Amino acid sequence: MSTGIIARAAAGGLGFGLWLATAAGAATTINPANPYAYGANIGWLNARGDVTRGAAIGQLYCTGYVWSANCGWIGLGNGPTNGWQYSNASATDWGVNHDGAGGLSGYAYGANIGWVAFEQTNGQPRISLLTGKFSGYAWSGNVGWISLSNAQAHVQTDVFATGPDSDADGLPDPWEYRRAGDLVTMGGGTNDWDNDGATDTEEYGADTHPRGSLSLLAIVSFTKGATVDTVEWTCQPTRLYRVEGTNTLPEGVSGGWWDAVGLIGPPTNATTTLVVPVGVISSTRFFRVKAVLPLSASP
After folding, report:
1. How far is CA 44 from CA 52, 64, 153, 202, 270, in A?
2. Deepest in the core among 78, 191, 192, 268, taking most CB within 10 A?
3. Which domains does the chain have, with CATH numbers?
């Protein structure tokens, strides 16, 4: 399940509401038409593998295998011991981590190639949160640099796997382990651990901290002008955003909500500001901001 939170603003105040969307999972998340990486000393590598054992790129870590005709299977990890991030410090807890903002780090391993390093200093392997396209390089001490994107081909993921939800509370286990360290502190539905007005489910949608009352999606500034309006909101580098407006409430009256500019992000600062040109002149205008899980089926 992919979830998100909406922050709303109008001349009279601020607020928020919840929206939900569901995306189907798959054995591999890699796009069928774009599965290929390349190394000058190893040739082509297929990140989709044989589909059932292909790479699965998650919100916080990777699993599955990459296939090399010259070196065989290369594993990305089988799931971290702590539930959300590989330590890469033991023989039983290694793999490639995803920081949620597109950065990959850690180690893959193949019996015929050894360790393959993903790091953000030299190779800088990354994934676009907007398109799922990989960029940068991974390093193998035995075969050198492996390019994840070049003029002929690239690796692309269609979605970010959310991971299991073993307690069936609507919150992915990896996110709960990352934020709370366990699966019992937080809950789905209307549960609001930090009593900040945003439920734990909404905090997951916005990737804000459910144990910090000052961490939540909120519009912090709204200026109504004659020809443009300005909206500023809190944001996270792991989410995309959509700004929608309407001239009349209740919602749906007078044409409903209109999309200001499409998907925005990923952000690089703690807040994002958007200048919205005024369409139909009205004495009242209202805006809401949606946090959108990257590569989800969100509206």
Report:
1. 19, 18, 10, 42, 40
2. 192
3. 2-23+215-292 (2.60.40), 30-157 (no CATH)
